[in-house]
Amino acid sequence: MENNSLLRTDKELSELYERNMDMVYRICYMHLKNHADTEDAVQTVFLKYIRSIVTFRDREHEKAWFIVTARNCCRDILRRKIRGFLFSAGSL
Questions:
Q1: 21 within a domain of the structure (yes/no)
Q2: What is the DSSP string of the chain?
Q3: In this predicted model, what pLDDT tens digit does every residue of 3-60 receive, in sequence order?
Q4: pLDDT over 80 at 76, yes or no
Q5: Number of domains in the chain
Q6: Is the residue at 4 inside a domain?
Q7: Residue 46, domain extent
Q8: In angstroms, what CA-CA distances link 20 with 3, 27, 66, 70?
């Protein structure tokens, strides 16, 4: 059983969001250059954090985790867009 001290309250999650949201948004917008895709990426990054909270133990490197996760999420979105474009162009 996991240590309950790793679970966070709504207040702690809210503070974490406020602390990291601007940075994550800027990183995602820099990669995606589209507000709608950026908002989707930011939401995905924070959902990944919330879902991994029980196993995520390295709080000292929280910022680094958000940077890497945001970058990877944007890369995934761009890959899906390229595949969708290539698929739709190939069917013409």
A1: yes
A2: ---GGG---HHHHHHHHHHHHHHHHHHHHHHH--HHHHHHHHHHHHHHHHHHTTT---GGGHHHHHHHHHHHHHHHHHHHHHHHHHHHHHT-
A3: 344 557 889 889 889 999 999 999 999 999 999 999 999 999 999 988 886 555 666 6
A4: yes
A5: 1
A6: no
A7: 10-90
A8: 24, 11, 8, 11
Q: Name the burial class of residue 87, with classes exposed (0-12), middle (13-18) and buried (19+) by CB atoms within 10 angstroms of its CB.
A: exposed
* Amino acid occupying residue 57: R
pLDDT recorded at residue 57: 63
Output the six-digit token pair for 73. 């999420």
The two structure tokens encoding residue 68: 């890497």
Can you give the CATH number for the domain in which 61 is found? 1.10.1740.10
